[in-house]
Specification:
Blueprint: E1 6-7, E2 20-27, E3 35-41, E4 51-58, E5 63-66, E6 73-78, E7 88-95, E8 99-102, E9 114-118
Parallel strand pairs: 4-6, 7-9
Antiparallel strand pairs: 1-5, 2-3, 2-7, 3-4, 5-8, 6-9
Length: 120
């Protein structure tokens, strides 16, 4: 199975605000490899259960994560930047819609990574 995310110059609808939480992320391979990760949301996220998401590396710039390609979401790690240690706490943007738009100038807003999470 191949995972994909769209990248490019994309403007956000409205003010682009999505709920932002934090989650602990533990990759199932080394941080420098694409694969999967175990993600455990931190309070006040309403569901504390751990779930598995694809983990991929992306270059700088905005990213659109589509629910049709990533039904549960995606962990994005900036190319050339790796969290240290066996796990990391990353911001998690949550949406009940069909996509999550993550704007970021060369990953300055989330230097170690970010999670796009879809919920019902």
């Amino acid at each position: 199975m191949q995972f994909m995310a769209l990248q490019g110059n994309v403007s956000e609808d409205g003010d682009g605000s999505l709920p932002v939480y934090e989650a602990d992320v533990k990759p199932n391979q080394t941080w420098d490899a694409d694969g999967t990760a175990e993600v455990t949301p931190r309070p006040p996220f309403p569901d504390p259960n751990t779930f598995r998401l694809p983990l991929e590396h992306r270059s700088g710039g905005p990213v659109i994560v589509l629910r049709s390609q990533y039904p549960a979401g995606l962990v994005i790690i900036p190319s050339g930047s790796l969290p240290s240690g066996p796990s990391a706490t990353l911001p998690m943007r949550v949406s009940s819609g069909d996509s999550v738009v993550i704007s970021n100038g060369e990953h300055q807003d989330w230097p170690w990574g970010i999670i796009a999470r879809f919920i019902d």
